[in-house]
Design a protein that fits this description.
The chain has 5 helices and 6 strands, in the order βααββββαβαα. It has about 180 residues and is of the alpha+beta class. Strands 2-5-1-6 form a 4-stranded antiparallel beta sheet, covered by helices on one side. A two-stranded antiparallel ribbon has the order 3-4. The protein is globular.
Amino acid sequence: MRFMMMVKANKDTEAGVLPSEGTLTAMAKYNESLAKAGILIDGTGLQASDKGARVRFAAGKAPKVIDGPFAEAKELIAGYWIVDVRSKAEAIEWAKRVPYESGGHMDGEGEIELRQLFELDDFGDNKAVKRHKKLGQKLAKKAKGARMVYAEGKKAAKARKPAKAVGKKPGKAKKPAKAKRAKKK
């Protein structure tokens, strides 16, 4: 199952304060451990809300665009990871390992919100789901073979090799086999 782990914004992230080298180093180590465990799908930091906008919809009215910044920093997201884990408990264990103690604007305080992502199979088998799966397959081809979870259903996701157990220390997972390259003639 996939989860989005969202880093909540704070006054520093909203002020555009960039992470220190120490923070970046700690985050790289953490990201590497997620990748080595085979659970990292995506993740990145987000720019401050003053570089963003919201589009608000109201019945019978044209969409309204609201430019940032937005007032409540604690309600905003400063970054995220998408992980593919076996359970909510495993996602929580990984979230507990985020290196908030590393200094910089992650000065030991923060919050990670976890939300499970829907899978297309959660919506049943209907024409709209089939249309989404077809789009996902097109996107996967366009991405030149990159794994596109959008195209997968629960059956395909279950068929993938499961993530490593959380009980092990990060970074102790086996290295993936190297792809064979064709010899030049």
